[in-house]
Amino acid sequence: MKLAIIAANGQAGQAIAKEAVERGHQVTAIVRSENKSAAQDVLQKDAFDLTKEDLAGFDVVVNAFGAWTPETLPGHSRLAEHLATILADSPTRLLVVGGAGSLYLDESQTAMLKDAPDFPAEYLPIAEAMGAGLEIYRQATAVNWTYISPAADFDAEGPKTGTYTLAGEFFQVNDEGESYISYADYAVALVDIAEKGGYSKERISVFA
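Structure for NADH-flavin reductase, as requested:
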């Protein structure tokens, strides 16, 4: 397949690029500066300046954009709106590296993980920003998107085991009561979804 990875220089982007290239896919890094990922091709451009033509011809576009500072957090919603516009009515699939904070805690779908009393305060702004982006994708009925939330403990340094569990909209833990996934195993799950298809216009989650 032909994949494009927005923010391929980030930790998630690099893990996904490495996994996709190792499986024989043709990967283009969409980055603002010099490419640091394993991608074979590079489109050096700001994600907010991408055009419909830039993304035409890709089987899958991965949005691995991440912002952490107060002034950049609105970028999650801005980019969601931009991608929803330029990918409308396109056959290209959009896979979004999401966040865990917007996962629901119960079947009523009223309380989210970010609303829990013990949710770390320092992560609340990013959880709310990414959750706002998810709501934009939910309205993007003309886009073939899938939003993939990682576990609460999303470990950049963790090993690649090649195993994972897919879940839906609800916060899940493993048999040890942990919500954990390494970036490497998250990348395995995302590339599997890219290859196998499914989950159109759905938010799913992955944990080890």
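The beta strands are 2-6, 26-31, 41-44, 60-63, 93-97, 144-149, 153-155, 165-167, 180-182, 202-207.
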